[in-house]
Amino acid sequence: MESVSVEGDTMVTVVHHHGPSPGADRPPLVLLHGFPLDSQMWAEVIAELPQIPVLAVDLPGFGAAREAAEPDGATLESFADAVVGALRDAGISRAVVAGLSMGGYVLMALAQRHADLLAGVGLLDTKAGEDTVEARTGRLSVANRALGPDGAQAVAGMIEGLLGPTSRAERSEVVEQVRHWLAQAPPEGIAGAQRAMATRPDRLAVLQTLQVPALVLYGSEDALAGAEAHEAMARALGTEPVVVQGAGHLSAVEEPAAVAEALAQLYQRSI
Questions:
Q1: Which domain holds residue 9?
Q2: Residue-wise pLDDT tens digits, 43-58
Q3: Rounded to whole angstroms, how far apart are CA atoms 104 and 121?
Q4: Distance (Å, rounded) from C-alpha 245 to C-alpha 228?
C-alpha cells in the first residue's frame, strides 16, 4: 500500500493505493468513506478486490488527513475539490468513484463540479436530498458538542443507526470495531463534516445529467437512508438499486463481500 498527502488551495486529502497500478485503460476505483469514519472502513471490501486498482481516500479531517480539519470552513464542495486535486496531481483524469453515506454526498458534489472525471459512480447508503430542518439542527448540535467537553462522545450514540439489527445481534466483532472507530473520531473532523453536510443542497437533478455506468446500493436494514431515497437516485441514474440483505447503513462493513461484488461489477461496466 502507498499513501500520498495532497494539499489543494485549502484542504488536504490523503489517498491510499491498493492493488495494481492504474493505467490509461485501467482507471482506479476511488472509495470515499462515511461519517465519522475514515478509509479503514473499506479494508475488507478492498481485500475482495485484489485485481482492481483501488484508491481509498481519507477526507479532510479524518484518518491520515485528520490534521486538515476545518471545523468552521469545510464544505462538501471543498472535500470534492480536494479529492479531484489529489487524483489529478497523481496523473489520474478518469476514475470510477464510489461513496458511502457522507462519501456519497461528496461524490454528488464532485459530479456537479467535475463530471468529466467520472467513468462510473457508486452511491451506497446515501441520499441525494437535502436535510430536513430537524436533521440540520441535529447535525449542528453534534458539531457544537464535539468541539466541547463531549469530544468524540458526541457521535457514540450513532452506532444504533449505523448498524442494522442483524449486525447488532449477530456480528459482535463488527459492533466492537465500529464502537472503536466512533470513540476515535476526531472532534474537529466531526464538527467540520457535520456543518458541511447540514448545508448540502438537493442534488437529484445532478444525477440525471450523468451518462456513466452507475451503482445504487443500500442495506436492507438501513435506518438512515432507506428504499425511497435509493429508488429516487436509481431512477435518476437509469438503473435499479441493489439491496444487501442483513446490512444496515454501513453495508460495506457489515457485508463487505456483497458490496465488493457489486463494486467489481460496476468497475467492469465502467472500463
A1: 2-270
A2: 999 999 999 999 999 9
A3: 9
A4: 16
